[in-house]
Amino acid sequence: MEEESDFRKINNSFLRDHNYATEADIISTVEFNSTGELLATGDKGGRVVVFQREQESKNQPHRRGEYNVYSTFQSHEPEFDYLKSLEIEEKINKIRWLPQQNAAYFLLSTNDKTVKLWKISERDKRPEGYNLKDEDGRIRDPGTITTLRVPVLQPMDLMVEATPRRVFSNAHTYHINSISVNSDYETFMSTDDLRINLWNLEITNRSFNIVDIKPTNMEELTEVITAAEFHPHQCNTFVYSSSKGSIRLCDMRASALCDNHSKFFEEPEDPSNRSFFSEIISSISDVKFSHSGRYLMTRDYLTVKVWDLNMESKPLETYQVHDYLRSKLCSLYENDCIFDKFECVWNGSDSVIMTGSYNNFFRMFDRNTKRDVTLEASRENSKPRAILKPRKVCVGGKRRKDEISVDSLDFSKKILHTAWHPYENIIAVAATNNLYIFQDKIN
Amino acid sequence: MFSKGTKRKFSDGGEEISEETLVGARMASSYSLQRQSLLDMSLIKLQLCHMLVEPNLCRSVLIANTVRQIQEEMTHDGSWQVVTEAFCSAGQSPSERLVATEVLCRSREQDAEPKLFSVISYEGCREEEVVADETLCSVSVSDAVSNVCLAGSIGQCWEKSDVETDEEALKDSRLGGSGEDDEIDTDDEPSREGPKTIGQVFGTFEIKNSSPGPDSALEELFSDVDTSYYDLDTMLTGMQSAPKMGPYDLLDSLAPSHGSSSIVSAPNCRSDLNELDHIMEIIVGS
C-alpha cells in the first residue's frame, strides 16, 4: 500500500449503520489494537463493541479487510456515589488496548471514575463428563455416582467471552479524561482534570499520584489537565496538556511526584488574533505522541499542531482545521460548541494526521506534501464501497457548486473520535452513533 | 419593602448617572456591547454550571477565566465602575467596588469547584430548610421569615455587592428582618414606581416557597435565564450594528447580571444552617 495515498481514493468499505439513534448509542471512543486486527468502540451507554477484521478471501476480494462485530459487552454500568450524592455516568471515555501477549486480548476501558481491565478470549471447546454435576451443571445425586470419569474437552461453536479482570477504582475525584498504557507493559496512568495516577496493571488497591495541579485553595484554580499520554518507547516519559494551551513533558526518573515538568511546550500568543476566546480556543483537547516518539501532536479548537520534542518554543507545523469558524466564535461559545473536545490521530508512518470537524467532516493533512483534504462521513453521501469525494467549505460570498457555505454547516453532527490502523491506511470515524470504516482503494 | 427600597435606589442611581450613562452609551461601540453581552452570557453559563453537582470542570474554569478577563479589562477602562454603580450605593469608594467585583469573581470560582456548595444546590438546601421549619413554626411565621431572608439577601446584593463575610451577611439580614434599615424609605415608595412591585417580587418568593425542591428552583432560574438569553441573542445578532441605548436600556442590558445576584448572594448563603436558624430565632423573637 502506498504511503502517499490519494485520499480521494479512500474506499468506504463498511458501515455499521442501523436505524437507532438513542443517546446511549453515541460513540464516545474508537481505538485499534496494536496489530490493527481488532477495533474497539465505546459508547455513552457504557458498552464496548469489538470489531474483528475478516481474513482475506480469494472468492470475495472486495471484502478484504472488512471489520465485523466480534464481541459486545457492557463495560460500565451507571452508578451512584452515595457519599457525594451524585450519579456516575456509564459513558466510556477512553479505551486502550494492551499489547497482545497470548491468545487472549486485553483492553482498558474507563468512564469518569473507574478504569477496568477486560479480557477478551475465544473459546471453542468445553469440558464434558464431570463426575459431580451433569451436563447442565446441576449437582448429581451422590447415590447415582458409581464410577469415576475423566472429563474431556469437546469441540463447540466458537464463543467470544469478555471477562472483567481488574477494576481500578476510588482514585479519582474528578473526571478521568484519558488513560495510557506504558511501554513497560506493566503500568498505566489515568488522568483526571487535576491529577494523574500511576497504576500497576496487577494491583487495583493502590495507585501513585504522579501529577497533582490542584491548588490548596480551589478559588485559585485557573487551569486543568485535558489529556495525558506515555511516550511510546521511553517508559519514564509522559506528557500532559492543559486548558491554557501548554504541554508539559515529565520524567518520572527525576522525582516520584512530577509536579515539576522537564519540558514545557507553549506557543506565544499572536497579538493580532487576540480575543476573549483566545484562551478557550487554545485549550488543548487531545495530545498524541507520534509512533516514532519524536513528535507530539496537539489539537485545539481551530488547529492541529505538530511539535518536535526538541523544540519547546513553538510548534513545528500548524494546520488549520476549520479556520472559517474564527468569525463565529461568539455563537459557538453561546451554543457551547467551543467546548467540544476533538481528538487527533497519526497514520502508521507519522506522515499524515487526521482530526474531526463539524457537519460530519473530517480532515487529513499530509505533512510532506502539505496537501489537505476534507472528507465527509455520512450515510447520504457515501454508499458502501463508494469513493469519498472531497468536500469544500466556502468562506466568501460566491459559493461554487459542490461547496457548502459556513452558515449551513450542521454543528450537531461532529466528528470527535477517529482512529487510524497502526500501519495500513484504514481509518475508523465515529459520527454520532455511526461508525464508518474507510480504507485505501484496492486495485 | 426591601425590594421597594431597592427599586428606589435603582432608579435613583439611574438618574444620578444618567448623563454619564448617556455619554457612555453614545460612545459605546459595538465592542463594549459585545463584551457586555459576552459577560452576561458567561455569567448565565456559570449559573447553569452551578446547577450540576459535578460540572465539567474544564468548561467551568474556561468560562470563569473569560469572566475574569472581561472584568479585568472593564476595570481598566472604567466601564466596570459604570456597571457597579448601578448596584452600589453612592457612598462606596472605588476600592470597595473593586473588592466587590473580586467577590463576584471569587464566588464564581468557588462554584467551579464541584465539592463546594454550588449556589443552586445550596438554594435547594435553603428551601428544604424553610419547609422543614414550617413543621416547627406556624406556617405564616415561617413564610414571613423565609420571605425576609430571601428578600434580605437579594436586596442586599442589589444595594451593594461587597458581601465579604458571613457575619456581615448575617448582620444585614438581621437589619432587613427588623426593618430598621435607614435606606429604606417606605413613605417615598408610592411616588416612585419601579418596574417590579413588591407583590411581584414577593410573588416570586412565594412561588419559591410553595414549591420546595431543587427542581422548581431550577425551573425558575431557567425562566429567569430565558428572557435575558433571548435579549442577548438579539443583541448579539441584530442590534450590534445599530446600538441605540438610553440609560435604562443600558440597565436593562445589565439585567442578566442582576439575575446573577443569586451568585453574589452565595457567600452569605454559605453561612451554615445554624446561622439561618439563629436569624430565624431573632426574627421570630421580635
Automatic annotation (TrEMBL), chain A:
The keyword Nucleotide-binding does not apply. SMART domains: WD40. PROSITE patterns: PR55_1 (PS01024), PR55_2 (PS01025). One of its GO terms (molecular function) is protein phosphatase regulator activity. GO terms for cellular component: protein phosphatase type 2A complex. It comes from the Eukaryota. Signal peptide: none annotated. Keywords: Repeat, WD repeat. InterPro entries: PP2A_PR55, PP2A_PR55_CS, WD40/YVTN_repeat-like_dom_sf, WD40_repeat_dom_sf, WD40_rpt. Belongs to the phosphatase 2A regulatory subunit B family. PP2A consists of a common heterodimeric core enzyme, composed of a 36 kDa catalytic subunit (subunit C) and a 65 kDa constant regulatory subunit (PR65 or subunit A), that associates with a variety of regulatory subunits. This is Serine/threonine-protein phosphatase 2A 55 kDa regulatory subunit B. It comes from Triplophysa tibetana.
TrEMBL record, chain B:
Residues 161-197 are annotated as: Disordered. One of its GO terms (biological process) is cell division. Residues 31-78 form the SERTA domain. One of its GO terms (cellular component) is nucleus. Keywords: Cell cycle, Cell division. PROSITE patterns: SERTA. Residues 179-188 have a biased composition (Acidic residues). It comes from the Eukaryota. The keyword Nucleotidyltransferase does not apply. Residues 161-174 have a biased composition (Basic and acidic residues). This is Cell division cycle-associated protein 4 Hematopoietic progenitor protein. It comes from Triplophysa tibetana.
